[in-house]
Design brief:
This protein has about 350 residues and is an alpha/beta fold. About 25% of the residues lie in helices and about 25% in strands. β15, α9 and β16 form a beta-alpha-beta unit.
Length: about 350
């Protein structure tokens, strides 16, 4: 347990958390929406510092990052808790852990120094703050990021983007890359299926790009909820106009069976994923990728100029034909970092 950053003391021992865009006002003895930040006698504490619920070594493509250190491995970890309540969540048992277990904070002791040493021992090039929302364990993540930076490791986040500007300012000097879930272009969707709002996510995306942090965007396509041509075009146009044509967009297939509360929804048809990919390309995006369909044409990286295959992917295995991040045929940049 550690005193939290970014909160304001209010009257009657209440506090306001300013870590994410919920800006929770928390009574004494209560917790915020995330379930892991608690008001104790008028002070806000993070309950997950040094306590990891999950860890492992993952291919960086699993995050997914296709243009940041491709072919490398990332030491990944998270705590319990999340500031969203996504009905489509596949890690709901840990993201909603405190909510589903009478407030218990489960996990093993794993101090920031240990995370960094295990990353080095496993020969990973980066640390991924993932599985649940890293914003809600920012103090734990920040301590780890600072040590990792000194050791020459890269820090990458997989996030819902609902952080405040103040949070981004604190982590930005240590953050090398981030993948943001842009779940929909509808505020109604965000409210009904995530317990959040759209605009703060859009604001974060633009701020991240302004800070020149490497950014990739993921949209999970859920049948009947966010799969219309109109909405997909809105997302693609936003990425092109506000984030840049070089920003990779991952459109992933949804599987209801592993979701928290959408088990009755069908798996996204391959044809819908292909439609989304074509919409992204038509909007002028250089790199549009399918997700969760191993071996699909849209999983590969092609030169945006001559269309030659440069990175062949099947699942998390890749074969590279590029030359130092450039097309080996025409020399065009492939916008690859590392």
């Amino acid at each position: 347990m550690k005193e939290a950053l970014l909160y304001k003391k209010l009257d009657n021992r209440k506090v306001q958390c300013n870590l994410c865009a919920h800006h929770c006002i928390i009574d004494e003895g209560k917790r915020g929406i995330c379930g892991v930040r608690e008001n104790q006698k008028g002070k806000l504490y993070t309950l997950t510092f040094g306590k990891a619920i999950a860890k492992g070594v993952d291919p960086i493509e699993k995050k997914p990052f296709f243009h940041f250190l491709p072919g490398s491995f990332s030491f990944s970890f998270s705590t319990v808790g999340c500031n969203f309540q996504c009905k489509s969540c596949q890690n709901w048992d840990i993201s909603q852990g405190p909510r589903l277990s009478d407030g218990k904070i489960l996990g093993e002791d794993l101090e920031p120094e240990k995370i960094v040493s295990e990353t080095i021992e496993s020969k990973c090039k980066s640390i991924a703050y993932t599985y649940t929302e890293p914003t809600i364990f920012m103090e734990y993540g920040l301590a780890t990021m600072k040590i990792a930076k000194k050791k020459g490791l890269k820090n990458i986040w997989v996030s819902n983007g609902f952080m405040t500007e103040e949070t981004l300012e604190i982590i930005a000097p240590y953050l090398d890359a981030i993948n943001i879930d842009l779940k929909s272009f509808s505020d109604e969707f965000y409210q009904k299926y995530c317990g959040a709002r759209l605009q703060p996510v859009l604001d974060s995306l633009k701020r991240i790009k302004e800070k020149k942090i490497w950014l990739e965007v993921t949209t999970l396509i859920i049948p009947t909820l966010n799969d219309s041509e109109k909405e997909l075009k809105q997302i693609a146009d936003f990425i092109k106009k506000e984030l840049g044509e070089e920003t990779p967009w991952h459109v992933s297939q949804f599987c209801g069976e592993i979701s928290w509360k959408l088990q009755d929804f069908p798996t996204t048809p391959v044809e819908t994923i292909e439609m989304a990919c074509k919409i992204g390309k038509s909007a002028g995006l250089k790199y549009v990728y399918s997700g969760n369909i191993p071996g699909f044409y849209w999983e590969n990286t092609y030169c945006p100029k001559c269309k030659e295959l440069m990175i062949d992917r099947e699942g998390y295995s890749i074969i590279r034909f590029d030359k130092n991040g450039h097309c080996s045929k025409c020399g065009e940049s492939l916008d690859i970092v590392g």
